[in-house]
## 1
Amino acid sequence: MKLVTVEQMQEIERRAAQVGVPPEILMENAGLAVAEEIRDWIGEVDGLRVLILIGPGNNGGDGLVVARHLHDWGAQVHLYMPRERASTDINYALVKDRAIHTTIGTVDQPEIEKLLSKMEVVVDAFFGTGRARALEGDFKRMLDRVSALTQTVPACTVVALDLPSGLNADNGQVDESCLTANLTVTLGYPKRGLFMFPGAKAVGQLVIADIGIPDDLADNIHTELITPEGVKGILPSRPIDANKGTFGKLLITGGSINYIGALYLACMGALRVGTGLVRLAVARSLHSILATRAIEVVHIPLPESEPGMIAGEAHEILLAEAAQHEALLIGCGLGQSASASDFLGSLILKRNTLPALLLDADALNILAKIPQWWKSVPQDAVITPHPGEMSRLTGLSISVLQSQRMDAAREAARSWNKTVVLKGAYTVVAAPDGRVAVNPYANPGLASAGTGDVLAGAIGGLLAQGLSHFHAAVAGVYLHSQAAELVRAELGDAGLVASDLLPELPRTIKAVKQGVLRGPEGEPNATGD
């Protein structure tokens, strides 16, 4: 599912008209789709009291189509528009033919307050992607009125048509009067600003509605949402005559006296996504602790510089072992001691004989101290920074990075020739060739120590099973987030701990393969496997 800018969406609509799908058809399809989503959300629209806010442009036109369909299904529909639409507007004419109650003009009219007090649903169809300037006048005042209503009548459902009015579709910035929607039905393709903060907080439940645009019109767009269908297509096959070598061997190294659990979580994350064999190379004094817990893992004790800290010379052992593996994960719990830095530097810098490489956590913090570190890591590698680590790697402030996550990740991947996983709400995966994939899920439960180690293990395990750097990162990010969604469904969004994710990873893989997971683009994939 492509993720678009305003300019790209306008170009797609222009090209749609050229191939026989004119704006009138798109508007009819859009309005019907939104009306159907409202019906699905509410459950029954007969007698439902609905107020639709009609703007002057195409977004308002879509809203008129919504009004017509909801009215025809038995809803009590009321319209408010600050300015009357042209008499030549066919959708406005159809609304008037049905005698749908319409209020035009200032919000100070007495009937506005009466209308608002009775509404069960308010549809925001004021402005769509074309509005970038500040809200003003009666548009602003009406949105403020509705916002106040939702504070006093929380049962009133706010539906945003395409996006909440006042949300910038490109960068996620919001006007102070932007409504917070319960449901946003975005049209044709999702817009980037819906997955960028602060705008993402105003979206509520997001649904992407198909409005009849031919798929090939977006082929030249290289930013996408990660979908269950897409992940299903890249998951490793599981032949019935397999042995553990079929599913790859992953070598994991890292850990220190203060971060012992990180390695356990990474190892189990790898095993839970189906890796055939995981070997763990860890400081000798930590070996006995981890061996009693990670019983399915093969262990390689390493020499220490001090208790619990890997010695720099341990890299010779790792280099010999690495050749026997399909992938190598470095960094979980490693720490930033002098010996850890020596170990990492000797192991990967200026070495080009390593297997598929994933660098996480303190491996990134150590690299950030090396000028132009990426030139010393000659091969492609997956790197998995959170915003703080990305800030140290790029020299950009966290606030700047967070305001341009997709572009920052794409530029870093291109300039470093690395696959970048920029973690956080709506994790971004960027490939050196310019492809970007955005995870459409944000779960506050994942803001918990150790969840990143599970993610690193999952991506490393998929690398070991033969997926490309980009595909391993995309699939790992998605499976990790969906495992968290399963935990949230059972426990809520507080109290999730990293180990809760582990048993949910294989369940998520099963659900993806069976086609029972639903993405924001609509119906689940039901084709099976």
## 2
Amino acid sequence: MRTAAVAWWAWFPLALSAATDAPDLFRAVRDDDRAAVQQLLRQGANPNAREPDGTTPLGWAAVRANAEITELLLKAGADANLTNELGLGPLALAVANGPLTLVEQLLAAGADPNVARENGETPLMTAARLGRVDVLERLLAKGAAVNARDEKFGQTALMWAAGRPEAVRLLLARGADPRLTTKTWDVKYTFYLPTTVTLGKTGIPWNNDGDYTVKKGGLNALFFAVQKNDVASARLLLEAGLDANATAADGTTPLLAALYKWDAPAGTFIPGRGAPATAGSSQRFRPDLAMAALLLDRGATIKNVDGAGYTALHGAALAVAKAARSGVRQSGAYGQTAAALALGADDGSSPANALAESLAIVRRLLAAGADPNAQTIYPTGGPAGDVRINPAPPGSSPMHIAASSGSVELLRLLAERGGNPNLGRRDGHTPFSVAVLAGDVAMARELVARGADVRARWNPQDKIPDPVEAITLPRQQQSILHLAAIQGRPEMIEFLHAQGAPLEAKNSLGETPLDLADHQERYREAIQRQGAEGDPAKLKKIVRGRAGSDTLKRLMGR
């Protein structure tokens, strides 16, 4: 009985005109023509004929998952261990494509379960990746090496079984070593400098160009379970004696990997065309709170940092921000942190439940001594084809993340443990300035109550687009009212003024908050007109918003 082949076709060329000393046999096998195969073999066709890439008729029978033709070829003397130029033999192809009976046929005919592809992938690894527990059992019974590694990364079948708890359980019972780790290697990333704060991936400036290098790899099977959100397998591995605090090459722990966690999107990523919710990133931020809770229950340490300087508390703060923002559209205005853009869309969980669970993790981390002022070092690099997946500028603390999270409760928790509202990050912003730029009055009010300095000056690296003045350098010596004036939200301006922020302060260009508010209102009008160019009706409706400048004038008595 033939079953449909569902995978691995790409490894076999379909153009066979140049190939073989038995073209008719290959054709009959590919066509599932049992009678023709039988006749050709009786006439002396070579069952071990090879195509230019080394493929045999038996290999094709395995791809076609045709047990009857496989039996004919084996009886005619087909060698079950001949491989093509990629090292793929009939057994590997049967594991990927065929039923258990086909695998058993080949094993009974002497197929070696340890014949690996050119990259070191064994049939056992393939079965583990596909979660084929019945096939795993047969391969192990025939002597498959349970701890064999692939060539490129040094991965094992146990690692590849992540996401399939039954496969993990079986491999552990048959001697798989959970302590084995992958190879390690260096990865070089490049700093990218956005031209202005409102173009491209907003709010991600940092102060040094060039490259930085981080370690990758050094992962045991627990990290693979974390990446697959497989709590059941993680529990099995921990019960097998795996240390919850084992570290990867860059210092990441399973707990950190569970909280600062990025998954590939369901669809195809096209660089530069990501959805606004991900700031053009190919990744989605999806923390695994259940996994984090399990690891904390098992004594996971909380102070490790990864190669970019992120801690578990950074990840938990971002989890709170993701839950708090779920379903809330964020503006793309100046100063919005990348965390507001890169956290991804809601993944279907209840926002209320996710928020409560995230805050509970934050409380556990803080109680265990997590530092609310720990600062990141580098942006987090993305995969090939993506500039970065970094959700917060270098130098960000959990307090910076909280300031634009939409969760005052998160901010309070961090502040009660010593979170500094005036801590500067590399781009010159503090948690206080982040909250003001995000337009969150409740957050700004909480920060002022926690000691935020309303009379401080900021030297942000952000370049503010301005159609009035041809300014190419960041404005310096900005007061908090200057920063509020960029957004022009009356409630924020009035609150800061009531807290003692000076109305007449001038920045390095001699602008008052009123001057800057007026410039930005003109800028927003210019952008609207540009978008409506060629449509007289739309152009006629565009009116310059003056809410910020009018509020400042009123407060100044003008």
